[in-house]
Write a structure and sequence with these properties.
The complex is a heterodimer of chains A (259) and B (263). Chain A is of the alpha/beta class and 259 residues long. In chain A, 42% of the residues lie in helices and 14% in strands. With 263 residues, chain B is an alpha/beta fold. Classes of the chains: A alpha/beta (259), B alpha/beta (263).
Chain lengths: 259, 263
Amino acid sequence: MADGVRGEQPISFFDAHCTVGRLAVPPPWAPRSPEGLLGAMNHAGVERALVCHSQSLEAHPAVGNERVVEVVAAWPRLAGCWVVLPPTTGEMPPPEQLVEAMGAAGVRAVRLCPSGGRHQFPLGSADAARLLTALDARRVPTLIDLGETSWGEVERIAKAHPHLPLIVLNTGYRVARTAYPVLEAAENVRLEISHYQGCGLLREGVERFGPGRFLFGTGLPQFEPGCAVATVLYAEIPHEAKRLVAGATLEALLQGAEL
Amino acid sequence: MSDVLGQMRAGQPVRCRVVDGHGHLGLCPNFHVPDHSAAAMVARMDAVGIDRLCISSHTALYSDFVAGNDETAAAVEAFPERLLGAVVLNPHYPDELAAELDRRLDHGGFGLIKLHPTLQKFGLDSEACEPIWREAERRGLPVLVHSWAGSPECGAEACDRVATAHPDVRLILGHSLAPSGTDDACRLAATHAHVYLDTATSAVAIGQIATMVDRIGPEKILYGSDMPFLDPAPQLAKVVYARISDGDKRKILGGNAQRLFGF
């Protein structure tokens, strides 16, 4: 936690982009257990993390979603995020039941992985719309990797579901020309900044769209978390903006989920 | 706790000699970079604690190398204590290479050559590049090359052939054969005494810097940011947060570059 000057609330880092559990192809130094993950977070000064389970991403989401509930029960600095599917095939409960189950499990965010390399489903289907409508109705923060969608699709979903906090992961440093129109068009779109590292990019984004549109994330366990921490701490933005980006906005979004 | 790590955790400029061996300058055609001017980059250097930055202009890399080197010269003239120019040479203009080097080196403020085989579409080991390597050898100039895993122009094989053919040229592998060629980059640095690696990459696998130090030691690794594509704070953090000794960090952050560039 980084202290502010007198009267300022301290900056507390809450990671919006983190995976717990063993990866199929772990980088040599990647933490492979919750203890290791917390060690990496401690080294970088990250207080909390919203985590998907590796099995939710790499294996079947229903399997990993059970695991993540067990993990976060044992490690209170971790908050669970489920990876979800539309109801098309019956592999997951109907959306209305799914959000009820989330509430019962203490899970307050979801991630969608629609790409061919992951869970392979169309975001434009009626079933996906039904899922997104249920999430929208409960204001459930919904994460999606930019590599699994497109800015056009992000804008379409955000406009169709205006109460859905839509968080785009892995935006990279080359996105301003394509991301800015979407940020202008849809206020419920937010960017996770683990790789949003262009020179002055976070400052410009905060000045133009407000600090509430950017969320700290690390990409742990694959990536060095200190890089994302430094992106926030050294940004030329006010202390309060850093506090919001670092974790306060994510905390508010999770609390705002009506589950 | 490491001194520099404590400074970064507090968001303060790091208090050690930092030389950034890999930077650029100016507007970029592919994407928007807010803080791309020399003044804006020097302000970012101040915020983070960087003493010197080696730059080459985007105009030189993407289009006209002479016009771009003019931009670099103007920036170096404006900040002579903070910026060092890299002369971009384009082998598609063989008749202009020696004269361009003469002009920049006579003017001052330039201390290395920069080559970008991917953007300008030439092989590092091509015949067209031979005059550049000979000039670098004759003048004792380090050469920073864009190196990229799997690239026929600047992948491990091309870099290896150049390093073998020109053992007297200090060759810096920009990006260390990213995104997947760290092993090859370390092998080349271990094999060739005159090959150096730099740390400029947009995404850093956790433990990557420590892995490089384990394999080749800290002496041949140079801090580089790729600024202004990438902000220097997260780039610096990858070294400062690495699980290596403070002494190793100081070598990577500045000590090695001081020796290489003769600051």
